[in-house]
Amino acid sequence: MTTAPPSSSLPPPATPPVDTQEGIALAAPRSFAHATGFVYDARMMMHATLADDGHPEQPQRIARIFEMLQRHGCIDRMVRIPAREALRHEVESVHQPQLWDRFESIVKLPVDQLKAYSNDLEISSSLYLNMHSTYCARLACGSVMDMCSAVAAGRVRNGIAIVRPPGHHAEPDSGTGFCLYNNVAVAVQHLLDRPPGAADRVQRVLILDWDVHHGNGTQRAFWNDPRVLYVSLHRYENGTFYPGTHYGHYDQVGGPQALGTSVNVPWPCAGMNDADYLHAFQRCIMPIAYEFSPDLVIISAGFDAAVGDILGGCLVSPTGYAHMTHQLASLARGKLVVALEGGYTLDAIASSALAVTQTLLGDPLPPWPTGLSCSMAGADTVARVVRAQAPYWACMRQSLDYPPAPKEAGVATWATDELYLDARAARLWANHQMMPLPAVGDALLRNQALCTPSTMMPGTQTLLVFVHDMGTWHIGDPDDPQQPALFLADAADDMIQWAHTRGFACLDLCTTQSVSVRMLRNGERDKALPRPDAKPVKTTLEAQALYIWDHVCALSPAQQIVFLGFGSGCDALMHIIANRVVQDRVKAVVQVMGLQPIPLVPKQRQELKAWYLEHSLVLCPCDHPLYTWNEQQASGKRLGRVQRALESNPMQVLLRAKDALDTLLGAPTAPPTATPAPPAPVVTSAS
Q: Which of 484, 494, 529, 658 shows its CA 20 to 30 Å from the CA of 217?
């Protein structure tokens, strides 16, 4: 790692790769229509940190790539595009004038002040500066501009810009994330603004950003421009991965005049590999790209998703990069530009850039490795991207994904959870005379909580409090007219029937969440993560749980209370246990888990440990993370008494809870005589 000496006259890096005579110079608009271009200038290595500890965005990044291409004979087969500085008015086509003035004034500071300012800038904006930084940034920006112009005009077929500093984090009013000016955005805006008849004028541009970090600056630059389709594949992790915003979520689809022209594939965890990326390409990126039909394709080619990168944590191989490049080369009559962004492990970026360049040159693709398959995390994410983009692209639409008409059009719509609650209330009234629990204000949804008449009757011996998720939704066979288009697999009614046969009063609270049956996880070192679009429902559910305890359970004359939780309902019941005094009334607690973490007895309530161990049983699917990944093993007694089920389906595990409750409660109570209830209409499926 090279560190620039903190002096006012920073010399060029020692022995940069010889590049003045390599390739075929293309200074004049001579035609090499079937050639591959490159741009590289060692002067861009003068941008280096003044800090004593070095920096991952180091000068050797571009030198190592250039050396690799030389060593494998690529440079001799390519056309050289001379590097040049971008002009102020060109940069200001994307960036505000104040940004240019700010950077130029900073780099002219005395070296001691500049070093101190750069250290502060690194902390606040992940950006460093030295006295040559703006010059290098102008070189990088102008070089990408001319490479894109040469490809758009047909002077070369395709090309690679080996430049630094990178650009895709730079926003119109700020430079962040190692980026000063947004090289790709300035180049695209320049081509869009070219006068009619200009050879390099374009009307539609696809920017494919495979850097492991979301290109927030590029997306923002063209947020409301329908002429630019911006696609990004990046680690997201619910907005916690750099740049640490929700701007890279898949629901960020573009401004009101450009809906669908921002396509985000937000990976929920590390460890995404070639198969995950190619699945995203084949399932959504390439179909949208063909429908968009660009005149030019630009890859914001950060190689920090490569295997071995010190910051990325993903597993894309040179072969994966080659195959993605090959697919993109089928667009825009092959007019493809690769512009370097991130990538911080020298060997990884050099080998990845070599594979991409060889693909640009038309060399045979490396064979696809055997045994790779898309992960569950990858498939789940891509499916959500497809649904988010379905309103804007015909190729993304399926009958059940097609969005409802807008409300302003006067077409009524109903949410599936509302249909489910209404149908279930009607069914449980008909079968067990269960009635909706009245609620004050908006404490509960309509028909969300149901109870039997005996809940508040004197003489009631046992009250079952059942807090549970919905089941799992399934799409029916569209070719089978006997099947519903959509149906729900749910074992909750079986539990109500079990309680009824034992004469228990029942209080039923449905969370309206689907039980967690899939684990978004890649690699043994990475924690299981919630769904990337998980909504903040925990606080609401906890409030609902306390509401039913305070207004029903605490007032019920029942001699004993039994807690049964399913899915996120387990967390709700634990919230009651931790925040109310329940030990004298609750005789048994059975928690049936999905694949979410097991709720723990709070550390500050140590007195509950012994009671919870004696009165509870936690049933987990056989592939719960507690067993698959050894998660929560250190939590000890706070987990309660945990039992591993033979089944992997949480619904099947729920049915086993009946035997567990019988064991905890002793001999079942004799069933009462039920009074038949008047029939009520029941909705069983949505067709």
A: 529
